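Is thymidine-5'-diphosphate placement plausible here? Inputs below.
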Amino acid sequence: MAKKDAKQYVCQNCGSVYPKWQGKCDACGEWNTIVEEQVGGEGFSNLNSRRSKGKIIDFVPLSGSQQKVERLSTGIRELDRVCGGGLVPGSVILVGGDPGIGKSTLLLQACAKIASLPDRPEVYYISGEEAIDQVRIRAKRLQLEQAPVNLASSTDIRDIVATLEKSNAAVVIIDSIQTMYLDEVESTPGSVTQVRACSYELIKLAKRKGFTLFLVGHVTKQGAIAGPRVLEHMVDTVLYFEGERGHHFRILRAVKNRYGATDEIGVFEMQDQGLVEVENPSALFLAERQGNISGSCVFAGIEGSRPLLVEIQALVSPTGYASPRRAVVGWDGNRMSMILAVLEARCGLNLSSQDVYLNIAGGLRITEPAADLAVAMAVISSLTNKPLPADMVIFGEIGLSGEIRAVSQPSLRLKEASKLGFASALTPPTHSKEKKVNVEINRFEIGNVQRLINWFN
Ligand code: TYD
Ligand code: MG
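Reply from A.M.:
I modeled the complex. Tokens:
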């Protein structure tokens, strides 16, 4: 056992613990993130540890009856889908995102909808960041002030746990976990030890009482939920709410889900009366597109279980610097460098004297390698200053030897494109195992990047 007043040094970025202070965290490589904290409590507090001796546990076979999980619908379909089809009682959902992106708005809207369900589930919204009046002003703006939500402003976990213990809560929202504190832990609120300790107490209570717990967490500049990566392991579901400040689209993305698929997304639009669900994201992301412009093409992507068409824009211009600039918004910069290198080596394009800028329109961030071919086509189109056909979609992965590889679910991509009125598609060769689909789309199959340039003659 550690001494009562012993100290430890904890990295606020990744949660690694050191016996002595040091400038750089060996585990995550960050500088100046290590902070002195008191041992004791350590999140796994002694509130309930009365037993000293272990009890024999029962082992059971893998087969057997399971309880069917009854999911609670939030009334917001995009949120339900990202959670795997509704909220599971006793589950814990961490919602991360930049400040001001709309986490509080989304959760206030969700809890108002749940509280207004016919059987009136008890919903508790506990804000540690905003005063009651501020939340009320937001509720009024969202026209939700009549919803029977139980609102409180508190940061003391001991009070919160004592209160919820006596309640019959179905859903509890803690906004945000970084403002909460447990008095027996001596670190400041927001430190790894505090966040871990507070979450641990709340999660334990949620599992015991069977309510769904939403924890709001802020995200650091690097994209990790501030401080506690450890928190991601403690919860059942991690959702990131993301979007560009200047755009009104917001994407809710599941990065971990014990009760559903990850990489599922929900699309919202931030309007004057709060977040509005987007039924047809492809149409929305293509709404501002202007056809017949060089450097632009449409990528037929898949996000989670859903096809999504987005415009990819590239701008290639002669550089004024010794080393040309490469800037990417919404895609992986290393991936783009790779595509440019393949185009140089296999197609003989000269890009080393050109600046290349790439943008995914609408503020969306895509992670699929299936976008390679679309990126390559946008770059070549801008370089040659020749537009691609406006009614064409593109998808395919590019390998280092210049081959164009098959990607997952081509039929779903083609179907979505056809639904939105696209007449042709540039795709990898049909895979032998691929299911034939009946879509009215003119499919051009291409096996190697060497032939890409022919499209622009
Ligand atoms: P908020 O939910 O407070 O963000 P977070 O909790 O993630 O920090 O969102 C605040 C932003 O959303 C703020 O910039 C104003 C904007 N907003 C709207 O555009 N419309 C609305 O109806 C509301 C409530 C907020
Ligand atoms: Mg907030």
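Short version: The CA atoms of residues 141 and 273 lie 6 Å apart.
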